[in-house]
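Example record used in the benchmark description.
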Amino acid sequence: MTELSEHDTAILNSILYPNLPLSDSLEAAKLQDIEEDTPDVQKTKKMEIEAVQLAETGKFDEAITMLNQALEITPQRASIYNNRAHVYQFQKKITEAFNDLTKAIELSGDNQKKTLSQALCQRGILHRRESRFELAKNDFEIAAKMGNQFAKSQLVELNPYAALCNQMLRKVMNNL
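Model output (structure tokens):
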């Protein structure tokens, strides 16, 4: 199977995601975390994977313990805070999740674009949940500019005119 050209990918995205703004669809592919490849970073990456697997099986306390241990080894790794925020949300510890996301955003910098994008989206969702729509919009706008498709869709939903158009379009499509 051949790889799609940038132009073909953009056309396909506009068909599959008609509510999203037209943009360079390959921006999201540029979202990467660039880190030093030290033994401590390798160890904590493995710990993160194990913690995520624990969380997926409902072992949230064990996942938090694993992520806390990883932070003791590499306290400046933004992705650990981002992943711990996920687990806190499952535990309904919203304040802790929000604090971890803010820390992940602060630590991300220029080399941690993937983590930054994910943390901004998570924090935007928390802001939206608490009816802080302007703060949610700000986080989603930053992530959207980085190429995050989820953030773009959230911006569309936060736009009352777009939401009304989407609702009418859904109704028309359901009637067909």
